Structure formats: structure tokens, C-alpha cells
Amino acid sequence: MKYLFAWVAPALVVIAHANPLNLMPLPAQYTLGTGSLSIKQTFRVVITSYTEPRLVAAGERANSILSRQTGIPKTLSESGPILTISCAHAAEAVQKFGEDESYRLTVDERGARLDAKNPLGVLRGLETLLQLIEAGPQGFSAPAITINDHPRFPWRGLHIDVARHWMPVEVIERNLDGMAAVKLNVLHWHLTDDEGFRIESKLFPKLQGMGSDGQFYTQEQVREIVAYARDRGIRVVPEFDIPGHATSWLVGYPEFAAAPGPYQIERRFGVFDPTFDPTKETVYQFLDKFIGEMTALFPDEFFHIGGDEVTGKQWRQNPDIQSFMRQQGFQDNAALQAYFNRRVQAMVAAHGKRMQGWDEILNPNLPKDTLIQSWRGTKALAESARLGYQGILSAGYYLDLIQPASKHYLIDPLGNEADSLSGDEKKRVLGGEACMWSEYVGPETVDSRIWPRTAAIAERFWSPADVRDVNSMYARLEVVSRSLDWRGLTHRSDYSKMLNRLADGGRVEPLQVLADIVEPVKNYKRGRGAGIVRPTQQTPLNRLVDAARCESLQAMEFARLVDDGDRKRIREWLMRWRNNDALLQPVLAKSFLLTEVIPLSQALRQVAETGLEALDMIESNKSPTAGWLARQQAVLDEAKKPRAEVQLMIVAPVEKLIGGLEHPQPEVPKRVTRAK
Amino acid sequence: MKYLFAWVAPALVVIAHANPLNLMPLPAQYTLGTGSLSIKQTFRVVITSYTEPRLVAAGERANSILSRQTGIPKTLSESGPILTISCAHAAEAVQKFGEDESYRLTVDERGARLDAKNPLGVLRGLETLLQLIEAGPQGFSAPAITINDHPRFPWRGLHIDVARHWMPVEVIERNLDGMAAVKLNVLHWHLTDDEGFRIESKLFPKLQGMGSDGQFYTQEQVREIVAYARDRGIRVVPEFDIPGHATSWLVGYPEFAAAPGPYQIERRFGVFDPTFDPTKETVYQFLDKFIGEMTALFPDEFFHIGGDEVTGKQWRQNPDIQSFMRQQGFQDNAALQAYFNRRVQAMVAAHGKRMQGWDEILNPNLPKDTLIQSWRGTKALAESARLGYQGILSAGYYLDLIQPASKHYLIDPLGNEADSLSGDEKKRVLGGEACMWSEYVGPETVDSRIWPRTAAIAERFWSPADVRDVNSMYARLEVVSRSLDWRGLTHRSDYSKMLNRLADGGRVEPLQVLADIVEPVKNYKRGRGAGIVRPTQQTPLNRLVDAARCESLQAMEFARLVDDGDRKRIREWLMRWRNNDALLQPVLAKSFLLTEVIPLSQALRQVAETGLEALDMIESNKSPTAGWLARQQAVLDEAKKPRAEVQLMIVAPVEKLIGGLEHPQPEVPKRVTRAK
Fold it and tell me: What sign results for the dihedral spanned by CA atoms A57, A62, A65, A66?
């Protein structure tokens, strides 16, 4: 066995945990029984009590998913296990926030039974049932169990920005499938921004006609997606961001802007000045008609008007607006925007909807049924709740910032400032939304930024507040991530495709060795490093940073090996990384897409060499000299700098390895001899 | 550098070849120029002369593919390279076999120009242009080149059986995309067989209603697929297999059978007895109406009536049929089937179509416009041609037999017996079809059996006869295989998904080490080994044999290392395989799907140990003893036996390694001592 590890790539080992259930989100309450239900065929679904086409479709869909996950053919035969669904009554015709989603699921050796008050609970329970089924030594089976489950928060959303980068219908639909799998229930669809107006208006066709490059959803497609979401128990809340983030509107209708124009679709990313003119009555006439058209298209109770990041520059520079503000006694732009919001809110209400907006819209003059979405922090959310507004949290759930799942996971809508709220105030915190802003994702890469991390966020929104074990979360996250593969999400399969594109016929293995331990730069660092040309909407997303995963599981595993002091496996990894550069450089020389990776690969080699020297010292019980330590620290500091817009995630564990060395021997200062 | 290979998985190196063009099929004629066309944006497509919506759509589709392959966003801007398409005139309203598909493509530093007589040539040339674009140190580019190209054969088909296993619309459509990429032009759609009737008949709804388990194409879907194919320059020839292979028809209409019934959808695979009764006029009345309905749905000139593998048992056992045969003077069942075929042919002709059938239908009494599809060999094809019939070859192109691409590649429709035909007779050989029979493939696995091997067959049908360099073919096949990934084919991405399902949360790496060097059993061995329960239509296709690739590229690479005597890399591989068993066994113990793999993994270890011993002897210049040779041969013979319905593909090269040892030393016989 002595060569055992020398020849097989050291591999990620997912830690098995005490929790035997690979469920995500974990249910509110469950009791394991004895025995299991053997699954050799797809279910015969029997619906007792209330039924509707959505339930029949859900049963068939569950069987289709089961069939894909297991490879068992979808059968129509009379054998196979029985799933009895008992649904007490219909759900609301238009799904409302706060509707009952609870269910009771029992599985024993004879079959499965799912009880729910309404179809939403059935949908949630079916997903749980699918997650219970696993292969074992005896075949596919689900453990005998009784689950009583209900969500902690009624608003559990995913926000997708389709303006910065266009996302075709199939991208939205497969992500709705992913949302359903983890019991999310709101798609917040960010349809307009400076970089694109992504929905057809029949009343104002220049909106999409001049503001979208032809990349927009027709109204028929919108209806299709709304129906697709409803089938999965997901509400769709559209967002039309006004009065700022509005360039794409003004390309076709510059007369509504606070400055003369003309306007062009914004290609850059950031916060821009084009803004509606809140002083013109024609603007409100236009918005009223537009809101009327859109509220007819989207059945949901809520209508999101954005309201974030108004620079106010156009307002300050427009004498008519300044004069209007003086007449009205508005002290600042915030007061002017509040006036605009009240006008818009009245129109939204007249069209039968509740207005929602980002936390900038918060103003005591707004009606109390306005919903506040906090992106700036839990403080704003708590403040809203104290003022009597319902709110949801997005701060801490920004997927585009490339943070680890664990970080999102531990942020709680009722945590931090919200913790000090009264009971009634806490009830105003409805839940939260993960936000996928799309400056740096396109149809090819968006899944890999949303998934699997959003499953961890979904557990935060659904499961009891004390479900907070990060190790358990990661173990289950890997299982749910695999299962999302079978829903058509591309967050796993596109990795190898993209690495193959980069290698362009060269050896892809050494490229993957490197890619496996890097992560894209975090927060707002992308596109801003020294010497980087600021990207635009038209910049290809086909580089290593785009292929790289948001969380390097292999780097996490390596960090664990360092913590555990598993020197044998630490050495294997370090040797592999040290040797990788020589294999990778010929590949990097082939394609211009990889030129930027050349120094990154070299840095990895240097870090690995440093780690190996440290390991040698540890194993031979030698202490490092201060000079050695200083030299190695310089190597590590250099390696911490982002290259090719990614970070090497193994630098910190190597640093820790060095930190574990014995106290350094003071170096004997060299005798200084005078120059001759 | 001494650890270089010890730490990185030895990897497949695709051999670079003299042929600098990664085109498949290779064009009839080309001349490389100097310089290249830089591709930083998608093409601005300018269509001069004749145009039609199909051409506009093809240009947009080419840009979409380019965008996916490169990651360059599809732009609508006014910059970017220009592709000028000049098309002389329209194609036939319904694509006819034999229509001109030639094109001339010129690329230089300023742009690309594509000239063709009709839209079919444009479609072919666009695919060539896409294949020319590759990443290099300076960016994406296409080399300066002039290509004059045309197909060798006018009939270049892929036959897909959707009866044994149902293939949903998206499977057909993505395979049409793959066909278009390699210039195939006929989808032969095997719509009915004993195991399923897969198309909606409005006149006879019990056909699909009772014969399909609800898995059939609606007429609307058929029209969609025919239009999808036409957009890509592909004809669709439907096959309705009669009078045998007809069980699924007879489930709903037993009155047309030659024996009383009742009938059920056949779940097993093989050749079965249920057959139409060729003596009943009601059968012809039924068929005439049915053929009328179907010929209205499929615009193509050809209509395939199957006609293969009639057992004749029902005919022999039916006294009325026997009596009819005596009256008509038919000596045997073949004569009765010929009578049936003539009747059917007359109906097909009356509905304006040319009849096509498998080679069993060949009979001098059939009109000369009948097309013969030879599945039993080139001899039958040559015979047809001599008799004056046009024909196509499928013998040698059966994808379900899991033969290497090289074998299919070297089979020529004009090879073997056809070589002796006269010039006019040779002209009757129209081309060929790759055949994907679906006993052992489902929607998940079918792509991996069709691709990439069908690309090699497509080259045989398109490129000049002297394009026969197998090494060049394999090098280019790998490139085209990668590019098919971007068309949505799943032949690569499903491999890892399926291995992940098998590992079910365990380590997938050692499973892949094994899977990478096995191939499914060949020819008709699947489902027939000792102790194997004969599979049916409802048997899951989720085992190692289903995940395994048809051709192990790593085993090919290992064989090459043995041929080259690269002892260092041979040792790396052998050690990896020897050590793999210990890593893999815990994974195999987890899931019932892998129980059958336990002895296979052990066999791999043993073969690797044998190889390592041989390598040690080679390196130490020792000669093996006869006893050692005999023992090792026993190990290898045992390892050659299929396990889990796959074969270890590295046994033969290890055998070769041993064969390269010096002549064995005669063993000194042990002295026999008498028992005390």
C-alpha cells in the first residue's frame, strides 16, 4: 500500500456527519422510523381529497425527476410504490405571500403519504420526498420517517438581474426548477436597468425596441414564465427600477429624462446619472399607463419600483427641477425622490398592487403597506420594522460578491439589529432574497454563481433558526448540488466545458488542478485591478475567473488537512501543486485567454515549494530561521495578490502551516567586514 | 523535475498531426493562404443575391454557436468581421436527395466569403467556417484559406430507433444539431417497432393510444421536427416497419394480425412473431389510409416500410394464410412477403412517394425506384445495384454494436463487393446511414453512443474516398467531439453525471479511473452473459456499462505507450491502476448499482500487478520463467472475460508488454520426492 496515494489524485472527501438526512433545507421536525421504502419503479401517485391540474403535474414532474436521478425509467405500470397525496383544499388563485406551505410526510415500507392543507404544501413535501431517496447496498430507497414541516419565513426569494446580462427564458426556467428544489417561493425579476430594458411593452414599444438590443421577453414569454413559476409554487415579483438606473428607458423616451439626452444603452457597469424628471406631469402619465400594462401582466400582489442609487446629478443641474424643489420646499434630492415615490405609490395602489422598493425609498410618508427590501444592512431593515413597515433582507445575500456559502448561511434576517426588535416588529421581517446581480455573469455562468450557495440561503429562510451547523450544511450542500444537476442546472457541467474551451485542445488536467484551488476576486474587486481594462456588457465572460467556482472545495479540504496535521496528504497536495506549473505552462502558451494565468501558475508553484520546505522542517524537527521566515512570508504575501482576477485559496493554509513551526532560531548576524 | 509525473494523473495526449485543419469532414479541396481572420466579435452577415428566412436564420444560428464556442457575446453592433454569403438561387421547396450541396469558402484577413448554388451549400459552408475558428496566442481566428467542397455521396444519414426506448423531442433536435455540424443530411426516424408505436395517428388513434405508453410524437411535434431538420438542410425519412416488428400496431388493432391476439406492447428485445396478415384486404385498406395520413405529414420523397426480420411463424400456423399461399402458388414466406411488399409499394407510389426498405425486401418484381437499405452486408448492396436498384449501406455502421470509430471509418459504401461494380452500377450506391438501435440506450445515454463516432462515419460519406488516415481522424474527432458539446449534445457532460450517480456521494475519482479504461461489451453480447437477467424496455440504464464510453481513449493511449516503449509512463499508469482497487472498494460497497463492479476492480488490480512485474523484468533485463508466463497468462485470460458487462481495455497492451520480454528460461523441474 505504500504507493497508494502517490498515484491517485488526492481527492475531496466530504465529511460524513451525524445527521443522517441529506435534506436541504432541513425540516422543522422529523422522526426517523425503522426500515425503508424500496424504490424500484417510479411512484404511482394517488391524489385523494382536493385535486387540480397543478397537483397532477407536480406528481408527474416528481416522477420525472426521480427517473433522472436514479436512471429508473418512468413507468405507467400498475406496480411500484404508492404515493398518496391528500390535499385539504385549493390554494389562492393567485399565490399570496404568507399562504400555508406546511406539510406532513410519512414514509414506511409500504409507501409514502403526503398531507397538506393546500397545493403549496404538497409541492414542498414532494421535494422533501425526492431528497430522501438514495442508493444503498440494497437498492434505491427512502428511510421510514415522519416529517412535520413548515417554513420559518414566508418570503424566500431569489433576485435575478437580467438587465446587465440578458438571461434567455431557459435560464430563468431552469433556475425556477432549482428554486423549487430548495423551497424558495419568490422570483424577483430585475427587468430593467441602465444596461437593458428586458420586457416587451405594447404601449411603449420603444422601451424594448431601443433599449434592449432585441434581447427582451415578449409578453407571451412572461406569461409562460409566470405560469411555470406558479406550477412550482413560486411567485414572480417584477422590478422596474425608477427614477434612477433608468438609462435604457430613456433611449427611446428621452423626453422623460431630467436632462436633454439623447441616451444610449449603457454598456459600462456602475451607478449612472440618467434619471426621470419627477417634476413633469407627462412622466407620471407615462408611468401610470406603463404600470397599468405591467400590473395586468404580473398577477402578484407586489410591484417593485427599485428606487436605489439615485445620483441626483441631473436634478441638481436642471434649473426647472431646482425651482420646483424650492417651490415645494424640498430640502434635498431625497425629499424630491420621496415625492416621486409617493406619486408612484399612488399609481401602483390604484392598479391594485402593493409597492416594494429598495431601502432608499423608506420615508415615513409612504403608506404602511409598502414593502422595504434592505440591501444596505440589517440596520435599515430593523428601522423599517420599527417604523411599521414590513421588510425583507438582501444585505448579506449578494451572490455576485463571491462570498462563501457559510457566510451567507450564518446571516439571519432576524439577526444583528433585528434581534432587538419587539415581537410584533419581528413579525414584520418577512424573510429575504438572495441577489444575483449580473455584471459578471451571463447565461453560461449564472448558474454557477447562484448554485449551490443559494441552497444554503434557502435553508436559512426555511429551517428553524437554530439550524446553524456549518459543517452539516456543507456536507448536505454537496448532495443537493449534485441533485440540481438532474434539474438541468449547469453549475457543475459548465466547469469542465469552460476549462476545455480555455485549454483549446491542450491538456485540461493541469489547468483544472489550478482552477480547483482558485476563487474569483471578491466583493467589488472584479474589473478594477491595476492594468485591467474596465469591462463592459460586451466583454466576453470566458476567462479563468469565469470558470472558477465561487468556493474552492479543494482549498477547504486542504485547510482541514492542515488543521488536522495530516502531513502525508498535505505533502501529496503540495507536491502536486509544485509540479503542476511545468505541465501547465505549455497549455498557457497556446491560447491568449490563458496568458494572464502564467504568473498565477508560477505563484502556485512558489507557494507549494514554501509549504514543502515548511513540511520538511516539521518532519525533521528543525526550526526556521528568521531570514527563512521573512523570505517565505514575502512569497506568500506576493501570492495573495489577485492574478487573472482570481485568488489562490491555499495561501492561508500554507501560512498556517508555517505558523505551526517551532519558534525560530535567532539568526547569527553576519560579521560586517569593511570593504577593502 | 523527478516528481513531475508522480503527482499528476497521467493524461491523455492527443497526437498533433501534420494536417493543420481541425475540419471534419475534411473538404474535397482546399488551399491555405497566409495570415488569418481575427474574430473578436460575432460576424456581421451580409447576404447578397438570393435570400430566404432559412439563410437569415442560419447566419444567426452560426453566430449563436460561435458565441457559445468562444464565449464572445453575440453582438448586433456595426463592427466585427463581415461574412458575405452569396447564394445563386433557391433550393427545392422540399429538400430532395441529390440536390447540390457544394460551396466555396474563402477566408482572409478582411473577412469571409461563402458562395453556393443554393441554401444547402450555404449551410454546409457555415459549418466549415465555424470549425475553422480556434483560439491561439493572439486571440480567436480563422486561417486564411480557400475551400472548394462538395459531398462524395448524396445520402448521408443517421437512423434513430425511438421505439425500443422513447426519445423525446429535445433528444431528436439536439441530434439534428449534431448531424448538421458534420454535414449529415438524412434523419431516418424508426418510429414503430414491437416495443412502441411512437407517432400520433388521428385516423387510428389506438395505434399510439394503446401501443406507446403515452410516449409518442404528436403530429404537431412531427411538423416541428421536420421544419427543424429542414432549417439545417436535413431530410426526414420516416420508417413504419411492416409486416413484422409490428407488435405495437396490433395491440390496438389485433384484427390485422396473422394470429388472433390479444397483443401487448413487447417489453423484451429480439425478433418476435406478431405480423400483419398479408391475405386480408382489410389490412391493405387500413394501410392505405394510414400511409395516406403519414405521407401527408412527411414531405420527403421517400417512405420507409422496414420489411426486415419476418419470422413467418404466424403465417405458417394460420391455415387461411397457408391456403392463400397455395392458391397464389407462393412457395415460401419470402414470396408471400414479396406479394405484401408489392401491394404496399403500389399504395406508397399512389401517395406520391418512393418506397424504401431493408434489404429483405429486395425482389426483382419491385419497381426499380425502390430504394434498398442494406443492413446485412455490402454483398446485398452490390446485388441491388446490379439489379438496377439504388441503395444505401448501413452494414458496418451499427452504432449499437459499440465498435471503435476506426472500424466504421474504414468501411466504404463502395468497398468490398461494391468495388467490382461498373461505373453505372456504382452510381446507384447513394451513400449510407449510421444506425442507432435503441435497445440499450435511453435519452440520457443515446448521445454518447451516437457521438463522436458518427462524425467519423459522416466523414466517410462526405470526404473523398482516399481520406482514410485513422490517426488524423482520431485527432480531429476529439476536436469535433468537444465542439458538439456547445451544440447541446450530452455525450461528454453525462459521463461525469452518471459516474456521480453511481458513486452516490462516495469518491468519484477512483470510479472514473476504472470507467476510463473500460468499454461496454460489443456486438450482441449485452444482456446475454451468464447469470444476467435478460433486460427489457423497463430495465434501468444506470450502470457502469451505460456510463462507459464506446471507446476508451485512455486505453488507446496506453497501448500507444506500450508500442513506443515509454516505460516511465507505462509504470505510472500501471501503478495508478494497481492502487485504485483499494480506493474504489469502499465506494463499490455503498451502492447496489456497483456491486457487480467489485470483481472488475480486482481484475484491474491483478492485470496491473502483472504488468508491473513484467516491467520490472524488462528494466532489470531478466527473462521470465515459463511458470511465471503461464501464471500471468491465466490472470490475463481471466481479466479478458467481461464483468459488469464491460471489458477492461488494457489487457491486450499488457499482454503485448509481456510478449516483449526475452525468451523464457526453461524452468528446472523440481525433484519429486516420495511421500514419507
Answer: negative
Residues of B that are catalytic: 309
Cα–Cα distance measured from residue B36 to residue B140, given in angstroms and rounded to the nearest whole number: 10
At position A330, the amino acid (one-letter code) is F
Task: Give whole-number Cα distances, A447 to A488, A546, A553, B73, in Å.
Answer: 10, 11, 17, 17
Q: Which of B:36-75 have CB within 8 Å of A?
A: 68-73, 75
Put simply, the answer to whether B4 touches A504 (Cβ < 8 Å) is no
CA distance B458 to chain A (A): 22
Q: What's CA A402's distance to the chain center, in Å?
A: 9
B257 touches B244 (CB < 8 A):
no
The residue with cell 502558451 is A589
Q: Report angle CA B223, B226, B231 to the nearest 5 degrees.
A: 125
Give me the mean pLDDT over the A413-441 stretch: 96
Beta strands per DSSP E along A240-389:
302-304, 354-358, 371-374
Beta strands in B346-450 (DSSP E): 354-358, 371-374, 390-393, 429-436
Going by C-alpha positions, the residue among B89, B92, B87, B93 that lies closest to residue B105 is B87
- B79 contacts in chain A (CB < 8 Å): none
Cα(A138)–Cα(B349) distance, integer angstroms:
57
A611 and A651 Cβ atoms separated by less than 8 Å? no
Q: Are strands B192-193 and B302-304 parallel, antiparallel or unpaired?
A: unpaired
A479 close to B (CB below 8 A): yes
Burial class (CB in 10 A: 0-12, 13-18, 19+), B421: middle
At residue B666, the pLDDT reads 56
Cβ separation A593–B486 shorter than 8 A: no
> Chain A partners of B616 at a C-beta cutoff of 8 Å?
none
Task: Tell whether A99 is within 8 A of chain B (Cβ).
Answer: no
Tell me the pTM.
0.92
Residues 6 or more apart from B481 whose CB is under 8 A from it?
B451, B452, B455, B491, B492
**CA-angle at B329, arms to B323 and B333, nearest 5°:** 75
Between CA A504 and CA A499 the distance in angstroms is 8
User: Per-residue pLDDT for B191 more than 80?
Assistant: yes
Tens-digit pLDDT profile for residues B42-66: 999 999 999 999 999 999 999 999 9
Please report, in angstroms and rounded to a whole number, the separation of the first and last CA atoms in chain B. 60
**Residues of chain B neighbouring A504 (CB-CB closer than 8 A):** 134-135
**Interchain CB distance below 8 Å, B8 and A576:** yes
Instruction: Please count the other Cβ atoms lying within 10 Å of the Cβ belonging to residue B394.
Output: 23
| Contact partners, residue A422, CB within 8 Å, separation at least 6 | none
Residue of A99, A134, A173, A309 marked active site: A309
Mutate to test the interface with A, among B4, B8, B213 (most CBs of A within 10 A): B8
In chain B, what residues touch A485 (CB-CB under 8 Å)? Answer: 497, 500
pLDDT of amino acid A660: 84
With CB atoms and an 8 Å threshold, state whether A7 touches B572. Answer: yes
- Residue A97, SS3? coil
Total Cβ atoms within 10 A of residue B48? 11
Q: How many CB atoms lie within 10 A of CB A627?
A: 10
Residue in this structure with the C-alpha cell 449578494, named with its chain if needed: A398
ipTM for the whole complex = 0.89
Question: Residue B241: exposed, middle, or buried by beta-carbon count in 10 A (0-12, 13-18, 19+)?
Answer: buried
The question of whether A309 is a catalytic residue gets the answer yes
Residue A10 grid coordinates: 488526492
Tell whether A533 is within 8 A of chain B (Cβ): no
User: Which of B4, B482, B592 is nearest residue A135 as measured by Cβ atoms?
Assistant: B592
Closest by CA position to A201, among listed A302, A304, A308, A295? A295
- Write the pLDDT tens digit of every residue in B105-119: 999 999 999 999 999
Contact yes or no for A149/A106 (Cβ under 8 A): no
